Amino acid sequence: MNSPRFLNFLETNFLDALLELPLAYRARMILQLDGAPAHFALLVRNHLNAHYSSWIGRGGTIAWPPRSPDLTPLDFFLWGTLKRRVYVNVPNTREELAEKIIQAANELREDKAMIQRSTQHVALRATACLQRQGGHFEQFL
After folding, report:
1. Nearest alpha-carbon partner for 2 in 34, 36, 31
2. From CA 125, how far away is CA 138, in angstroms rounded?
3. ∠ Cα 111 112 115 (to 5°)
4. Is the Cβ–Cβ distance between 44 and 8 less than 8 Å?
5. Pure H helices in 15-68
6. pLDDT tens per residue, range 22-58
7. To the nearest 5 percent, what fractions of the chain are helix, strand and coil?
8. What element of type H or E holds 100?
9. What CA–CA distance (Å, rounded) separates 43 from 3?
10. pTM for this model (two decimals)
């Protein structure tokens, strides 16, 4: 993924998905990006600054917490769960892979209890991170 492609994603697919959410929900959301080069590119940061009052990331309005992948549900829950579900039976084609990803994401979206548990786990992880002064903490959960 390069920065022009990521910007295109933000302006199209991401925006379309965002607009499907109720306004009250969107008003409480803060976009969080990691420090990937495509996310840090000036053209992407200019877009984010123009369209979002606050966003978390390298160069963002809210600083990206150092060593924090273990603090975000996307990292400690979603990506691994999606991968396990998609690769129960290895897809043979790119199209089959895309279908399996969409199917797994839709199944997860419907599992409200699982989503709730993963987001509630953020506070526990943040507390553990603080207790370890930003060091590794997963083994203490």
Report:
1. 36
2. 8
3. 95
4. no
5. 15-19, 23-28, 37-40, 42-51
6. 999 888 888 988 778 999 899 999 999 999 999 988 8
7. 65, 5, 30
8. helix 94-110
9. 8
10. 0.55
